[in-house]
């Protein structure tokens, strides 16, 4: 019985210790964004890695998800003779939920895991110690460009996902279900206001913050050679995906009030 | 002569494993100290404590009169600019070229122009015999070349102190000799104070002004090479002979066999 409570206690201690460490490192990373020197070249490299190189993935997933959703909506609304509503609901769902969440989840897999693997490898090969020895704060040098790139690129990629989401719905509802192109174009944005776009972009920024901080933190805290480097990306993807879904719920609830 | 590096009563344990026990070392201006000892005896931990990468459980390290353990992060970084650290496996930034690795600290910590940085990088690479290899990536270098690029990176900011963590481990005897000569050259050309950790007796006696031996977390001896060779301590004599039999190992080694016995 004592062992059981001991195990629970140890797990709780471990959880709070990890949460505390993450909070401290995140605070240091956020504070470091204002510090000099400003490494423009490094930032540009991260913009390419996080943003430009992710465009094909975002286009394909955005297209696929919006098409599947349009098929489901067309089928569902047909039961009630309300096919006309499909394009409005498609627009609302793509802008408010599908584009930011799918982009966030895909980026946590593509970008967050890469950050964890890269920093993890640097940690176990003493490259992070080498940075310290060269009088360079690893949080400033490694976290800040990745964090800024994710904060800027996630909203842009979400905008791209919304754009491709429009065409995904168009392909199904206009070309397959036979709605008129004019009706689709006017109905898609009918229920969508600027507030919805604001919600989508705010979510995207929050997801960018989560992906960069969790990915970098997991990599920075990697221990134990190849096994540790292997675990860091997996752990980063699982943690940031969970956080993205939870944050999505709370942000939606807060911002729709 | 004043002590540039002073390690005072430093102890460090990781969980139940005590790695360093009350270690005291002073290194004078321009002196080259070689620290030897078996694997896992805390030599690298000692270097990490000197650099401020690890905090000792007790005791402290003073560099040029500044106690490392009491410094704020910006103050610690200022001290680190005076120290060049050469890692065991070089720890080169693998996403950067040789040029970017060597010029890294110059770009971040000096106001040098691109041309001045290029000249200094060339100068540092020439010192370690790698002139012209600035465009290569770390993955394209051999083990010995990586170590030398690591040396070039460490000396780029013209440090007062150089720390070498097992610079010859894993290299062939010829490259080991080359690395030993480079360390000696750097010592003479730059006049730096240095601490080198090595298992290689030949290069150790080539570069050392004084030799120390760490055994079971304690500093057994710290003396000039001639005196060290004559030290009657059985642990030191066993280490110098490179013999498995003696007090050096905690677990008894396998029995010694003649080649004929081994072939049976």
Q: Notable features of this structure?
A:
heterodimer; A: 257 residues; mainly alpha; 9 helices; 85% helix; B: 264 residues; alpha/beta; Rossmann fold; six-stranded mixed beta sheet; four-stranded antiparallel beta sheet; 24% strand
Describe the structure.
The complex is a heterodimer of chains A (257) and B (264). Chain A is mainly alpha-helical. Helices cover 85% and strands 0% of the residues of chain A. In chain A, helix 4 runs parallel beside helix 8. The radius of gyration of chain A is 21 Å and the shape is elongated. Chain B is α/β, with parallel strands linked by helices and 264 residues long. Chain B has a domain of 135 residues: 3-Layer(aba) Sandwich (Rossmann fold), CATH 3.40.50.300. In chain B, strands 6-7-8-3-9-10 form a six-stranded mixed β-sheet, with helices on both faces. A four-stranded antiparallel β-sheet of chain B has the order 2-1-4-5, with helices on one face. Classes of the chains: A mainly alpha (257), B alpha/beta (264).
**Largest interface summary:** A-B, 15 and 23 residues
Low-confidence stretches of chain B: none
Described by strand count, sense and barrel closure, the largest sheet of chain B is:
6 strands, mixed
- Beta percentage of chain B is 15-25%
Question: Nearest-angstrom radius of gyration of chain B?
Answer: 20 Å
* Integer tally of domains of chain A: 1
Roughly what fraction of the amino acids of chain A lie in strands?
Answer: under 5%
User: What's the pLDDT, averaged over the residues of chain B?
Assistant: 89
Assign the CATH class of the domain at 1-82 and 195-247 in chain B.
Answer: Alpha Beta
